[in-house]
Amino acid sequence: MEAAEHDILVAIDRGERAFDWNAWFGGVDTAGYLTPQGRALASLAAADLETLFGSSWLPKATDPASRHFIAEFGATSPLLALSEAAASAAYVETLRWWSSLQVLKQRSIPGVQSVLKELRTDITGHRLRHSLAQARLAAQGLARGAEVFVEPSKSRGGPGDVLIRAGGCEVFVEIVSSLPVPNQDELAYDDHVMWLWRQSADVSWTGYVPGFLNVAREQAWRKAVVAAVAHCLESGGPGVVDLGSAKLTAQPRADASGGKLIGPDVAVDQSRRLAGVIDRKAAQTRGAGPAWIWIEDHGGLHQLTPFSGMGIEDKLAALAELSRPLLKDRHHVAGIVWTRALRSSDLESNDVVGPFGMAFKRPLPGRQVRESIVVHRDLLLPEQLNLIARILDREPQWLAWALETLDVSTLAQCLRVYPPTGTR
Q1: Contacts of 235 (CB under 8 A, 6+ apart)
Q2: Residues sharing a CB contact under 8 Å with residue 168, sequence separation 6 or more, in sequence order
Q3: How many C-beta atoms lie closer than 10 Å to residue 27's C-beta?
Q4: What does the DSSP 8-state code read for residue 126?
Q5: What CA–CA distance (Å, rounded) separates 205 from 195?
Q6: Is residue 209 left, alpha or beta, with left meaning phi > 0 and alpha meaning psi from -120 to 50?
Q7: Disulfide-capable partner of 139 in 100, 104, 188, 249 (CB 3.0 to 4.6 Å)?
Q8: Each residue of 118-138: pLDDT tens digit?
Q9: Residues 162 and 217 occupy one common structural domain
């Protein structure tokens, strides 16, 4: 850690300065990896991020004493990087966040204000990962000349995540994060949500879903849910589950404006099994027509399969074997996209096409690669598959497009050592 970063951290610890987005970027004036253009872009991005996230977001997300503390978040800050190379990679990652959100805002993409509102008010790791994935995918679609929507509406139920439209073809995407093995509350929340969706396809849910419950409260909660469903279906009105904590309401799906479930104060949008991920998202995409489930892997699937040591060809075969049986019973799910960005010394691009899908490996600025696996159902939708392939194929280029769109300096102009991956 350089002296400038040390001084910033000491000042924050003493309460002499706020942990704002300027502090997030670290001591840019003395950062050896940045050019003058790179320092200027950091200042511009910091000001925009303050507007996009709101002034209170970052102090809460980085305060260990706050209930909004996001433990893994600080690892992506240039300020907290342990080396100049790590700071450079964190700088590029922050530019990805900023540029994707800023492009959507600048172009007034439908739904972007809803995404920003949720990002500002729901200060959790889940919301951060989800919103950034929405913004990145939408920006990638824009970079390929497509029309995009975030939080697109469906014929019934709540909104989806991203809709990409190009050449008369539409791809409707529902995004889910898959994280490492969750704790007891998270597992219980997932089980409860899955069980709720299985009660009736004609009911939509809004409100609080509990985490772990003891045996007596678990039985009472499930009994109250069954009663609420029966009341809702018989009367046509809402059925309420109220056991003295936050309420959960069942309402006829045809009348629902879009239910939203909340749970314990943990990162809840994850699953121990791929089946759980697909089941939950498949239920949420009813009414959207053919939909794709987009899995942002943050370590979750590596706990279930020997994924981490596989090449992308073997990953494609393993994911196809795991997920294709699940797709057979979920007729409106067109396919699954699994994607993960990770540090790697192997920065070569690679493509694989198999009988049930395709795989892409692309180097990214910032010493990373992104691996993406696409698995489709037997009834192939070639236009949708082609549009997804075009987006994934150009993964390394969308950031350059976004910086050009925002009329700011390129990465080559910002970094003294470029390209940071060693490849253009």
Answers
A1: none
A2: 383
A3: 20
A4: H
A5: 12
A6: beta
A7: 100
A8: 999 999 988 999 999 999 999
A9: no
